[in-house]
Amino acid sequence: MSLNEEVELLRNIPMFANIEPSKLKLLAFTSERLTFSEGDFLFSQGDSGDAAFIIVDGEADVMIDTPDGPLTVAHFKKNDIVGEIAILTDVPRTATVRASTKLETMVISKELFFRLVMEFPQIAVEIMRELAKRLEATNARLRTLSSHAA
Q: Which string of b and e fits 27-62 if b means at least 16 CB within 10 Å?
């Protein structure tokens, strides 16, 4: 994937949509690329958070540990970002993320992520919106599961 293609990919992610192309180019250039095979773990619940992952291609499942075993709480695909909670809050990873297909990612380090948030406050607003959306989806799923268990 070329640098220009990566910039276009970033542009399609809501939290980066309003950033100047030159800054997106810098983000794309400084991000690491990692590929995962189906079944590989990007990170596990409890790990320290040192980076966020943008899904360039493929899909991944987000799972949390429960007394009854892992529970899948979300599914991510191209243009989604995962792993930002741990780097934003300085807490261990709140979930495990596993590639459900071959997965190509751009990895944004904690340091670079914070520089972006400080320089572009709109990113922080978009992150809050995305996290609120995810929380509501997780709550809805938990309500459904608990009503089935009752």
A: bbeebeeeebeeeeebbebeeebebbbbbbebbbbb
Encode the chain (150 residues) as per-residue pLDDT tens digits: 788 888 888 888 877 887 888 888 888 888 899 999 999 999 999 999 889 999 999 999 999 999 999 999 889 999 888 988 777 788 899 899 999 999 999 999 988 888 888 888 877 787 788 788 878 888 888 888 788 776
Q: What CATH number is associated with residue 63? A: 2.60.120.10
Helix/strand/coil (H/E/C) assignment for every residue in 7-72 = HHHHHCCHHHCCCCHHHHHHHHHHCEEEEECCCCEEECCCCCCCEEEEEEECCEEEEEEECCEEEE
Residue 11 lies in a domain: no
Domain presence at residue 23: no
Residue 123 is assigned to a structural domain of this protein: yes
Its domain, for residue 143, covers 32-149
Q: Is 129 part of a structural domain of the chain? A: yes
